[in-house]
Specification:
This protein is mostly helical. Helices cover 47% and strands 4% of the residues. The mean pLDDT is 82.
Length: 89
């Protein structure tokens, strides 16, 4: 997802502003242990869970179970927004 599109999602309230920190960490590490999320976003564990929950609901990230690490998801429905021109509309 381009930064502009991510910023748009945060501006419309569909994602929290600190979502970018989580996505960057997952991109650089490949996966992110859930225990690291509060430190990365600089919030309490409860607020970190809310941010993760929104990203999971938006299908931007995925996890095998509630205790497993987080990974980037690439839902087909977002392909046109994340990478314009990649696939025909």
């Amino acid at each position: 997802m381009s930064y502009a599109k991510l910023q748009d999602a945060m501006d419309t309230g569909s994602l929290y502003p600190k979502s970018t920190a989580i996505l960057k960490a997952i991109l650089f590490r490949g996966e992110l242990p859930r225990a690291d999320v509060p430190t990365i976003v600089g919030t309490t564990a409860r607020q970190a869970r809310r941010i993760v929950s929104k990203l999971l609901d938006a299908e931007v990230i995925t996890s095998e179970s509630p205790r497993k690490p987080l990974r980037i998801a690439f839902p087909a429905r977002l392909a046109g927004r994340w990478m314009p021109g990649l696939l025909p509309e």
